[in-house]
Design brief:
binds magnesium ion; globular; 8-stranded mixed barrel; EAL domain-containing protein; binds ligand C2E; 20% strand; alpha/beta
Length: 276
């Protein structure tokens, strides 16, 4: 991106870099304050059964509504928080917020809605993670089966065995496990062999318009058949159109998450919309 300098002699590349550093500094300056001021917000996005659209669960997603920095999506601050360690506090804050909204009982069935949460590898690998998680969930008297722990493939890049070990412990305690963004990371199939997961979330890249539709379809079909054989529930992420939904339905995908059903909503709005 090296370009010619502007009139002050600063190249475009330098400007972008300076802005990024400036944002990083500003974020780090405000993160603690933001937590105290409740600037991090819990959004929930539904997962829906493809057969009839019924609510099948929800994913908790963080948003940062900062009076000083504006409304920030997770991709703009999570990588930084993973580097400076603040993600541990944020992940636990989100867990507490989810516990506060529990129970959400699905109208008609009377069953508690399962909420899935994203935990960073940094959080999972922090000493005392399991004990702390148990403390939060048990003091709120929430059944472990109501919480699904989503971990992305990339979490296993380092210390694979140690991460697997933590997840096995959680599974043995009754928490549900989901592998997030399946198919984007490294050694997906190898992980599938080893990890005691309940849910496979297929990355939205598999629905990308930039790939040959018949090839995408074959890959999707293969993944869905394999997941079925393994007894896993498959959730396809990023389903935006009715055409995509009906293709997935045909291929036998049980659950979808995406704008075709709903964008992530502020927690209160989500409850109102679904009568929870
Ligand atoms: P993810 O866990 O894979 O979450 C799904 C992402 O896909 C969300 O992005 C969601 O808004 C987006 N999405 C859902 N449906 C559609 C669709 O139909 N089309 C498109 N284009 N996108 C869709 P979001 O909320 O921006 O979150 C990005 C990532 O940030 C998440 O990816 C997750 O890895 C991470 N994240 C979010 N909240 C937390 C958190 O509390 N803790 C941690 N550690 N990570 C989080
Ligand atoms: Mg996720
Ligand atoms: Mg995902
Ligand atoms: Mg993701």
């Amino acid at each position: 991106m090296k370009e010619s300098p502007d009139k002050e002699g600063i190249s475009r590349y330098d400007q972008v870099f300076r802005n990024a550093v400036e944002l990083k500094n500003r974020i780090e300056q405000h993160e603690d304050e933001a937590l105290a001021n409740r600037e991090f917000q819990l959004y929930l996005q539904p997962k829906n059964r493809l057969a009839d659209g019924a609510l099948a669960g929800a994913e908790a997603l963080v948003r940062w509504n900062s009076p000083k920095l504006g409304f920030l999506p997770p991709d703009s601050f999570i990588p930084l928080f993973e580097k400076n360690g603040f993600i541990v506090q944020l992940d636990f804050y989100m867990l507490k917020r989810v516990c506060q909204t529990y129970p959400m009982t699905v109208p008609g069935t009377g069953e508690a809605l399962v909420v899935s949460m994203n935990f960073s590898r940094v959080t999972i690998m922090r000493e005392g993670f399991i004990e702390r998680l148990l403390h939060v969930v048990d003091s709120a008297r929430i059944p472990h089966e109501a919480i699904e722990v989503e971990v992305t493939e990339s979490a296993f890049v380092m210390d694979e065995d140690a991460v697997i070990n933590k997840l096995e412990t959680l599974k043995a305690m009754g928490f549900r496990l989901a592998m997030d963004d399946f198919g984007t990371g490294y050694s997906s199939l190898n992980l599938l062999r080893k990890l005691p997961i309940d849910v496979l979330k297929i990355d939205r890249g598999f629905l990308s318009e930039n790939t040959d539709p018949s090839r995408s379809r074959s890959v999707l079909k293969g993944v869905l058949d394999m997941a079925g054989d393994l007894g896993l529930v498959t959730v396809c992420e990023g389903v935006e159109t009715e055409e995509q939904a009906s293709m997935l339905r045909e291929l036998g995908c049980p659950v979808a998450q995406g704008y075709v059903f709903s964008k992530p909503l502020p927690e209160g709005e989500f409850r109102t919309r679904y009568g929870l």
